[in-house]
């Protein structure tokens, strides 16, 4: 088992607008999340948010004792959200096992000392997409199946943004300190997500794109509403979105993405909307 850990600094709008394509990708794009029997973790200095991927194949993988967090164990001062984007697998937390199928989620609270990941079939491994944020209180662990999600349908085929939002780890479904996660599925023929775009000054966010068909891509938009930038992304890649930045995308096909966010506010509707005609 290998653990790959990377730390990403935070940048202001004035610094970001000076970046070229390579600099934008280096600082905001997370290109590799899943590798056999590895854990890939990226810590963003925006709200100390961790984004990662765990893909157990030949062995059960433990998240271990992370020296890079200066902690005795990963969840000593953190909470963890997990969504399985692969085949069936199991997460075990201090001896309690949770079986997760495709697109099922799990919340683990502060204070759990041992977390392991395994696949039901090594030939069709699980892919555990994980997000983590600092926590001040220990809330109970909870599995959230798609049937348990709070579902909202938005957009229309006429504006190419007909989508279903599955709120999986949000305060109306499960108690958390600050972590929130959900999954948005675009209908066939729709390509735009989160349009009209918005910002939320009290929360940062990370988008993880998957189910992007082979040979297709997603163009992710970021930056201030009056100074946008774009990053071309492939399936199973993630992108960091600062709290001052819009976060939206358009694909060359429909796709699915997972949004995760953290900050001082758990109000999902706390957004500063940007008029489409005013974006630049």
Automatic annotation (TrEMBL):
Entry-linked CDD domains: cupin_KduI_C, cupin_KduI_N
Cofactor: Zn(2+)
Keyword ATP-binding among record annotations: no
Residues annotated to bind Zn(2+): 198, 200, 205, 247
GO MF, one example: 4-deoxy-L-threo-5-hexosulose-uronate ketol-isomerase activity
EC numbers, comma separated: 5.3.1.17
Pathway the protein acts in: Glycan metabolism; pectin degradation; 2-dehydro-3-deoxy-D-gluconate from pectin: step 4/5
Gene Ontology biological process terms, A to Z: D-galacturonate catabolic process; D-glucuronate catabolic process; pectin catabolic process
Catalyses which reaction(s): 5-dehydro-4-deoxy-D-glucuronate = 3-deoxy-D-glycero-2,5-hexodiulosonate
Catalytic class of the enzyme: isomerase
Pfam family, one: KduI
Cofactor binding description: Binds 1 zinc ion per subunit.
UniProt entry keywords in alphabetical sequence: Isomerase, Metal-binding, Zinc
Domain of life of the source: Bacteria
Recorded family membership: Belongs to the KduI family.
PANTHER family: 4-DEOXY-L-THREO-5-HEXOSULOSE-URONATE KETOL-ISOMERASE
Role played: Catalyzes the isomerization of 5-dehydro-4-deoxy-D-glucuronate to 3-deoxy-D-glycero-2,5-hexodiulosonate.
Designated name of the protein: 4-deoxy-L-threo-5-hexosulose-uronate ketol-isomerase
Natural source organism: Pedobacter metabolipauper
């Amino acid at each position: 088992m290998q653990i790959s850990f990377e730390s990403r600094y935070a940048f202001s709008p004035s610094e970001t607008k000076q970046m070229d394509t390579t600099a934008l990708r280096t600082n905001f794009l997370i290109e590799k999340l899943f590798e056999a029997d590895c854990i890939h973790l990226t810590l963003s200095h925006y709200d100390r948010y961790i984004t990662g991927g765990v893909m157990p194949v030949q062995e059960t993988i433990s998240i271990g004792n992370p020296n890079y967090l200066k902690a005795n164990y990963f969840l000593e001062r953190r909470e963890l959200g997990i969504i399985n984007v692969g085949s069936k697998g199991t997460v075990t937390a201090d001896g309690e096992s949770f079986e997760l199928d495709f697109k099922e989620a799990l919340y683990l609270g502060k204070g759990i000392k041992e977390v392991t990941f395994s696949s039901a079939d090594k030939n069709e491994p699980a892919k555990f997409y994980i997000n983590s944020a600092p926590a001040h209180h220990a809330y109970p662990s909870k599995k959230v199946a798609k049937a348990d999600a709070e579902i909202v349908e938005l957009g229309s085929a006429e504006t190419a943004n007909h989508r279903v939002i599955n709120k999986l780890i949000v305060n109306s479904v499960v108690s958390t300190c600050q972590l929130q996660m959900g999954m948005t599925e675009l209908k066939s023929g729709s390509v735009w997500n989160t349009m009209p775009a918005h910002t939320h000054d009290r929360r940062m966010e990370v988008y993880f794109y998957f189910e992007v068909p082979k040979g297709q891509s997603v163009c992710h938009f970021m930056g201030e509403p009056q100074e946008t930038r774009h990053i071309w992304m492939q399936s199973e890649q993630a992108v960091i979105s600062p709290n001052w930045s819009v976060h939206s995308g358009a694909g060359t096909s429909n796709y699915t993405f997972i949004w995760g966010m953290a900050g001082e506010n758990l109000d999902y509707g706390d957004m500063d909307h940007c008029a489409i005609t005013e974006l630049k």
